[in-house]
Design a protein that fits this description.
The complex is a heterodimer of chains A (about 110) and B (about 120). Chain A is mainly beta and about 110 residues long. Helix content of chain A is about 0%, strand content about 55%. In chain A, strands 2, 4, 5, 6, 8, 9 and 10 form a seven-stranded mixed β-sheet that branches. Chain A has a three-stranded antiparallel β-sheet with strand order 1-3-7, with no helix packed on it. In chain B, a hairpin with a 5-residue loop joins strand 4 and strand 5. Classes of the chains: A mainly beta (about 110), B mainly beta (about 120). The interface between A and B is medium-sized, with 24 and 23 residues.
């Protein structure tokens, strides 16, 4: 089973700042199998990034994904008020087929 | 526009059963695999199961294998999750999500299941 560890647990930043979120896998992951989601309170998750670095439809270009092997990063270049939320990484694996990280909360400072 | 609407949640006693339904519209339902993912109150996301586009293949997380069954009816654009032998730890919001390649790309708003005596 692949375990995804996200850090930090909480990121306190101001609008306009850069956010860097980390997702570390317990074993090497094929990049095409790595995705990122955003979830706001009371809402369903929204797909942001798939294939480690491809933005989903309608996702602004201030969101970018990178990484390979066991270390992946989601970067939000300039935080907007709508970006304060919880972010999850997700990997497609073997058993279970899909695993999520524990999440990183980006909160307003 | 793409819509997924879950229903069937509610209060159930431990050991009882519940059936969730997810109705899709605004896209070609039969072209997609579908996932169920749950989220316990205040916790993260936990993947439960996936069913292939034609219903011939299913895969389950160990935590629900043998208790939960996923099914679909492409003629009605619906997806079901049959949950048996419910436990208090099954209390969560249950989301259905459309499969797109290797990822769930679009999610419904979820339905809350509370298991309590």
């Amino acid at each position: 089973e692949i375990v995804l560890t996200q850090s930090p647990g909480t990121l306190s930043l101001s609008p306009g700042e850069r956010a860097t979120l980390s997702c570390r896998a317990s074993q090497s992951v094929i990049s095409s199998y790595l995705a990122w989601y955003q979830q706001k309170p009371g809402q369903a998750p929204r797909l942001l990034i798939y294939g480690a670095s491809s933005r989903a439809t309608g996702i602004p270009d201030r969101f970018s994904g990178s990484g390979s092997g066991t270390d992946f990063t989601l970067t939000i270049s300039r935080l907007e008020p709508a970006d304060f939320a919880v972010y999850y990484c997700q990997v497609y694996g073997n058993s279970p087929l899909i695993t999520f990280g524990g999440g990183t909360k980006v909160e307003m400072k | 526009q793409v819509q997924l609407v879950e229903s069937g949640g509610g209060l159930a006693q431990p050991g009882r059963s519940l059936r969730l339904t997810c109705s899709g519209s605004g896209f070609n339902f039969s072209n997609h695999a579908f996932h169920w993912v749950r989220q316990a109150p205040g916790k993260g996301l936990e993947w439960m199961t996936v069913i292939s586009s034609d219903g011939s293949n299913r895969n389950y997380a160990d935590t629900v294998k043998g208790r939960f069954t996923v099914a679909r009816d492409n003629s009605k654009n619906t997806l079901h999750l049959h949950m048996n032998s419910l436990r208090t730890e099954d209390t969560a919001v249950y989301y259905c999500a459309r499969g797109w390649g290797l990822v769930p790309d679009f999610w419904g708003q979820g339905t809350l299941v509370t298991v309590s005596s």
